[in-house]
UniProtKB/TrEMBL annotation:
The gene is LOC109092139. Residues 38-65 form a coiled coil. Keywords: Cell membrane, Coiled coil, Glycoprotein, Membrane, Nucleus, Receptor, Signal, Transmembrane, Transmembrane helix. This is Inositol 1,4,5-trisphosphate receptor-interacting protein. It is found in: Cell membrane; Nucleus outer membrane.
Amino acid sequence: MQGAIARVCVVVVAAILNHPLLFPNENTTIPEQDDALLTRMQEHQEKLEAEHKRLEQEISQTETAVIDDQDSYSWYFWSTLCLVIFFTIEVCRQDVIPTEIPDSVEDEDGDSSAEYLSAKTVALDKGVLSNFCKTRFHPFIHESGRVREFIEGFADDLLEALRSVCNRDSDLEVEDFVGIGSMFESWRVSKPPTCDLIVPFAPPQPFRFQFQLWCDPSTEIPLDLQGCGRIKLIKPGGNGTDCLCGSTNLGDDMLCLLHSRNESEKLEEHTLVELLCEKNTSYLSKDQIMRWFQISVSKAWGQISHKYDFELAFRNLDFPGSLKIRFRSGKTVILNITPAVQFEDTDAYLISHFPSDTSNPSDIHWQLSLTVYEKNLLKHLAKRLPTNSCHVHCLQIVSFLHKKQTALTGRSAFSNYHIKTALLHLLLSKRPAMWQPQNLDHRLRDLLSFLQQSLEEKRLYHVVVGNPRIPVEILVPKIIRTAEPINLFRPLVLQRHVYAKMEEHFQEMVKNTSVLVQEYTPHFSNGYVRHEFSSADQT
């Protein structure tokens, strides 16, 4: 009995060891034309099958002679164990066979796709990068200061005129602007200068806004609208519960002084809701607000245009706050004024429109902007970094490359906001000493690699929402700090063609990095910088 079992085990082991795919060679494929090899393998298989049948016959004869139940159970145990071992080895063998990744992938038309280039292997020269930053970005430092000063003065004047044309009893109340973006964070990269302003507004008294954020458990907002919120226009005491006349019969000869103009107030409330809210709801409509804002800005400019010696024009009718200032000298300044609603008493704002955002078609879901906290975070982290640290130059270089790649291959969903988010993640994760100015090439590769990996994984988390690494000094509101992290790429992944275009854009940008840096770096000759730039630089 034991001898038969031993012979079965030997046959099984021999079959496994002689299997041609157990220990595959470098080339694991069998040429179809090798008939001799196939013939030998077939003969070997037939011999194994014959030996297996012979052993089965011997075992069958042995079983008839066994009268002890214990021996019968032992046979079933050993045969089952051999079968389990056989299948285990087969499964493990399939796992250890290597799978080759082709160097290029052909599409349906037979064309090979572009070769993948890792951002970690991008050729960067420290001297070239240093000269590139000195000649491309340093001249903007003093000019940006003058532009900011001019824009702040003009914006104050424009908003004051806007307040004068609004009806204080029925129109929205315009508050002071907040400067955001590269111009106000000191990492401007190109011409013409672009200034981004948030202009908060509030409802007229006695109305107020009620907020329903995506992270509020009592609010139902679709998953693809994470980071958004609704704004409800309400009037406190509108149901009459704050006055006795709502619950007491005062008689025909009694008049409530608080509600003597009840009908006119109801009419005014109805008019305001129709002006600002989506139809048949009390939720603030982005389209209605933008329409009101465009009309108000046009009226305000009409009042103060005689004071300025330049032209002001709307750049994009879909985004009425996108303005262009053109001076007689031909110079221009781009000014983006975005209406917003301040979230309670915080520095968070619900934004009506992001010009680069195409993933939120809902008219009542407003995008939460935490740019003020991001600006404060960048400023806070910079205090711990070495003198002349390279973090700003990393952000400027990648933003510059993105702008030039957009000019070459067209617009995509990839934006400077994604670049800044990636940089902030790196600043939070790396030691301050790693941002020495001489480490610019290494940190630049890190930033490109972080973005590349995020695109591959289809995951780039918002740097403020639900991030435990944010210092307490930034004073992020608890509801934002404790919320689930938001994947900025999630809405884009749902639009496959949009995301594919963004991946292609970034991969081309990585491939062109060295070339673009070399092309836009002036050459040094006898210690002087050559200032002749290519014609593309003037765009």
